[in-house]
Every structure is written in structure tokens, then in C-alpha cells.
Amino acid sequence: MVSEKDDIRILVIGGTGHYGRHIVQALIKKNIPVRVLSRNKNKAQSFFNDQQALEIMEGNVLDSQILEKCISKVTGIIIAISAFNRKTIRRLRKIERDAVLKLLHQASQQKINRVVYVSVYEKPLPDVPMKTGKIKYEVEEALEKSSFDYTILGAPPSIEIFFSMIRGGKMRVPGGGPSSLPNISPIDLGEIAAQAILRSNLPQKRYRLAGPSAPSFPEAAARISDVVGKDISFTKIPLFPLRVAAKIAGGLSLIMPYIAQLLPFILLLNSFESEIALQVAEDYKILQDTFTYSSHTLEDHAQMWINREEK
Ligand SMILES: NC(=O)c1ccc[n+]([C@@H]2O[C@H](COP(=O)([O-])OP(=O)(O)OC[C@H]3O[C@@H](n4cnc5c(N)ncnc54)[C@H](OP(=O)(O)O)[C@@H]3O)[C@@H](O)[C@H]2O)c1
After folding, report:
1. Has residue 260 got a pLDDT over 80?
2. Substitution candidate for ligand 1 out of 19, 87, 132 with most atoms within 8 A of CB
3. Roughly what angle, to the nearest 10 degrees, separates helices 257-269 and 131-145?
């Protein structure tokens, strides 16, 4: 169990990613020695200002020797890896499942006990059709059956999804999105994951990370408009052409693997039930009762977004 601060060293796998970067920053802020594995050391260095407590190890998670090196002398591991992009989608299973399970196996041999795994919002069902869901299910099962002192963090879409759909003053959303979208600030996720890995009194369980609010896309557009002081109009892009494209890409998944995985994801995003808003309120209360953090709202992120846009 992690106890004395001096003895702590945390390995973050995926520490340069959208969520991982904030996890590393939160650990650095707490003066916790952190090791990050990245395929590109220079790129990784560019993400972090204060690098005193940071060690960046260059390498690929698919390399067993690197795995062995990067777990050496660490007291806890945070896994926030993703291969869900155009370049690595063909190796999704190798990177997100096989390498992660190998890492866990090697960690247990080294008697590393504490693991935090950043997964998807809901634990997927075993027969989920999406490859990425099936992988998350398998890794979560492995953790649940292991002797690790683990915490699973169920990540919803980042709050940044609302801003990523805005171009030229218009928010364009395929399918229009659900009536309530669970989401979290990556800054809050970073803080929660950092606290989780350092806590020795958390029950072995899964937390859904969401809140404080779960707006629809049109509601988000209106709230962002209020902050930035200009109208962000909302447009729904019809899903029908996407459904057809998803069908074709599914059949052609060998030559269009990214599209084949991405389109079902958009369809899933549109299928969130309206009751989810109530669930998010419960999730948020549990998080506030368990972790100490002041959450970043859509308005906070709108301010950060406009500052970035104006640069
Ligand atoms: N982003 C979201 O909105 C969202 C929503 C729901 C769930 N999640 C979950 O959150 C977790 C993190 O996702 P993310 O979106 O933050 O990831 P991301 O931004 O796509 O970052 C991917 C990370 O994985 C690392 N990586 C990929 N392949 C690697 C390899 N072969 N060897 C070593 N490192 C490798 C990358 O490191 P380098 O490039 O530096 O090597 C990078 O740090 C995932 O489990 C994802 O499913 C994310």
C-alpha cells in the first residue's frame, strides 16, 4: 500500500493523452514523482512545464522489455492508454488489451499493488459489438478478478467534445446528440485519478466520472454563447448518411478500420437515454463525497476556449 510520500513513484501509461496529460499535471502539482511512457519523448516534454518530478521514458507499450523497465521501482500505475485513432486503430486490441494485460501481469510479479484504470463511462456488456467496448470489458474483468488494489474510473466524453463541434460560430452535431450528455472536465478527471492512485482507503470499485452537468448540445451551445458573448448556433447533421456509411465501412472494416469504429461511436453517442441526467447527478454526488476537488464547469471551459481562440 502507498504510504510515505518519499517512497512513491507513479507510472502513467497514456500520460500524454487527452486525459493522461491532466493526470500527470495533477500528480506533478502534488510533488509526486511521475514516470510517463511515450513513443515520442520530445512531444511528451512539450506538454509539461514543471518537469522536476517527471521522468519520461521513450518506448512502445508493445515492447515487453520497455514494460519491464517502466514498472521498475514504481508504487502505483495509472492506465489511460488509447489506440482509438487513425494511425493505431488496426493495433487497438494489441495496444489496449494485450499490452495492458501483460503490463498488469508483470506488475503483479513485481508486487505492485495499486492500479487505476481509466475506462469508458459504463462498464460494457461482454457481448458489446464495438471492439473498443469489448476490450474495456476484458480489462475490467481481469482487474476485478485480480488481487490488485484497483480503482476503475469510468470516463464519459470529455467536456471538450462540445467545443470540438464548433466551427465558424456554428455547433454542428451528427444526429444532434442526446438530450443529456454525461461529460467531465479533463482537469477534474486528472485530479480524481491522481487522488485515487494515492489513496489507500478506496474500496475496490468502479466510479462513473461525470458532472456537474449533462447538457444537450443545443443547451451547451446556448451556455457557451452566454460566456463568449456571441451567438453559437446549433445545427443537427442528419444521421441517415452516417448509418449508411457505417454499414458500408463495417463491411469494409479491413480497409476502413477507423471509420468502421468511429461511426458506431457517433450512433452510440446519440443513443444515451434521457434518464442519464439523473444518473449524472448521482455520479457527481458520489465523486464530491469521495474526492476533494472543485469542478470545472462548461462556463469555465468556454472561458478557456475563447482565450485559446483569441491567441
Ligand atoms: N477522450 C475522451 O473523450 C474519452 C471518452 C471516454 C473514454 N475515454 C477513455 O479514456 C482513456 C484515455 O483516452 P484519451 O482520449 O485520453 O487518449 P488519447 O488522447 O488518444 O491518448 C492516447 C495515449 O495513449 C498512448 N499510446 C497509444 N499507443 C501507445 C503505444 N503503442 N505505446 C505507448 N503509449 C501509447 C499515447 O502516448 P504517445 O502518443 O505519447 O506515445 C497517448 O498518451 C481511454 O481508455 C479512453 O477509452 C476517453
Report:
1. no
2. 19
3. 80
Nearest to 118 by CA among 175, 222, 180, 194: 194
Domain boundaries, the chain: 5-215+273-310
Nearest CA to 196 out of 19, 26, 14, 4 is that of: 26
Assess whether the C-beta atom of 186 lies below 6 angstroms from ligand 1.
no
Tell me the mean pLDDT in the region 240-244: 77
CATH number for the domain whose boundaries are 5-215+273-310: 3.40.50.720
Q: Is 17 in the pocket of ligand 1 (CB under 6 A)?
A: yes
Whether a cis peptide bond, with omega within 30° of 0, leads into 218 is no
* Spatial distance between the Cα atoms of 213 and 278, rounded to a whole number of angstroms: 10
210 CB within 6 A, ligand 1: no
More confident residue, 39 or 257: 39
Is the distance from the beta carbon of residue 153 to the nearest atom of ligand 1 less than 6 Å?
no
**Dist. CA 84 → ligand 1 center (Å):** 7
Q: Rounded to an integer, what distance in angstroms lies between the CA atom of residue 68 and that of residue 58?
A: 13
- Grid cell for residue 40: 515520442
For the cut 70, the answer to whether the pLDDT of residue 28 exceeds it is: yes
Ligand 1 touching residue 46 (CB < 6 A): no
Q: Which tens digits make up the pLDDT trace of 84-96? A: 988 998 999 999 9
Q: What number does the ligand 1 atom closest to the CA of 158 have?
A: 3
Instruction: Report how far residue 64's alpha carbon sits from residue 218's, in angstroms, rounded to the nearest whole number.
Output: 47
pTM strictly above 0.90: yes
With a 6 A CB cut-off, is 40 part of the ligand 1 pocket?
yes
